[in-house]
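Worked example

This section walks through a single chain of length 455. The input is the sequence exactly as stored; nothing has been trimmed or padded.
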Amino acid sequence: MLAARNLRRGANAQSVVVYAVFPLVFVFGFLMLFGRVFEERGLDYAQFLTPAIVVQWMFTVANTSGVATASDRDSGMLSRCRWMPLNRGAFVAGRLVSDVVWALVAVVVIGAAGHLAGFRFQGPVLAVAGFVALAVAFALTLTAATTAVGLVSAGPEAASATLNLPYLVLILLSTAFVPASAFPDWLEPAVEASPVSSVIDALRSLASASPSAGEVWLSPGLDRRSAGRRRVGVHQGVREGAMTVVFEASVLAGRNIRRFLRSPQLLGDALAFPLILLVALYVMFQEVVGGAGDEPYIARLTPGIALFSVAYSCTGTAVGFYGDLRGGFQDRLRTLPIGRSAGLLGRITGDLVKFVLVTAVTVLVGCLLGFRFERGAVAAVGFLLVVVAFASIFLWLAVVTALSVNSQETASGLLNAPVTLLLLLSTTLVPKPRRSPGSCSRWCARTRCRAPTAR
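Given that input, the structure is written out below as C-alpha cells.
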C-alpha cells in the first residue's frame, strides 16, 4: 500500500520528464560533446557511456528517495504511520519497492536511448538480466543510505544539499565518463578503486560479448525564529511605501542568509560544489580537450562552471520556497502588516548574496589553477554582474517551478537536468567544433542509420 502511494505520488508529468526524458538528454548530450574526441582515440563512446548513465540515474533515484523521506518526516507522515497498526519496516519497504519501479523505468529508457546511439548488448539474455539486476541492486543500496540521511536531516532542503556532494564526488572520480588512464597518475589508483567504477565496469562487462565473472562479483525547515520576532523599525504610517518593502525584504533576506550560514549542510554544498566540480573536470578533460582550443583550458572552464554553479544552486531555492509555501511560512507572512512582495523579494535577495559567495569561491579556485582576469578589476566586476544577472533569471525560474509542482523532490528533479543540459550544450567543456563536410553522414553511419540522399 505504501509503495502504491509513493508511485501514485510520483506518477505525474514532472516525474515522467525526470525519468523518461532527461536520461535521453544526458546520453545524446555527452555523445555530442565527447563522442568524436574518444572515437579518434579508438574508443566506442556509446558502448562506454551508456552503463555510466545508468549508474548516474540510479543515484538520481536514490537521492530523490532521500528527499521524499525527509519530506514525509516533515509533513508528519512518519508519525502517522507509527500510530497505525503497521509493521515498523513497512514504510522503508514501501519506499524500496517504489524505487525499484523507478530504477527499472530508468534502465529501460537509457538502454533504448543507448541503442539508438550505437550501444548493444553483445552477450546472452542472461547477461542482460544480470545487467538490469546489478543496476537495480546498486540503486537499492544507495536508497538505503539516502533514506537514512532523509530521516536525520533537518528538512528536504538540507537532505538535498547533503546528498548532492557525495553523488558529485563519486560519479566524477570514477570511470563514468573517461577511462582511468585519463586521470593523473597520482589519482588513477583512487579512481580504479572507487566502488562506483567497479559497478560501472561490471555493467560494461555484462554488456560485452564475454562478461568476466570476477568483475561482476567485485561490484557488489523552516527557521523557527520567523518574522514574528523580527526587528520592526518602520513607522506604521508608511507601510505601503517602497522603502518599507525594501526594508522588509532585507529583513527576510537576512533570515535566509543566517539560515544558510548556520547550516553546515547548506554551506558545505554551496562552497564545496564549485570547488569539486571545477577541479574534477579540469583533471579529467585537461589532457583530452585542453589542446583543442587557442586558450588555456582553465580560462574556458572557470566562467562556465561559475554560471553552472549558480544555476544549479537555484535548485535549493525551488526546494526552500516550496517548503515555505507548504510549511505555512508564507501564510504567516500574509497575516503580518508587511508588503505582499516582501517574502518573495527576501528569498531572491538572500539567494543572490549566496550566489556571489559561490562565484567568489569558483573564481578563487580557478585562479589557483591558472585562471586570470587579463583586463583587470573592471573585467572582474563585469564578470560578477553577468553572473548575478544570469542567476536572477534562474531564480525566477525556480520560483515558478516551486509554485507549479506538488512535491519538493519534483522541484529538485525538474531543475537539475535542464541546468546540466545547458552545461553540455555550451562551449564550457569543449570548444565550438569546426564544421566539416560529411559530418552528418559519418554520424549516421556510426549509429547504423542511413543518411537521407537527394534525388
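What to look for: The radius of gyration is 24 Å.
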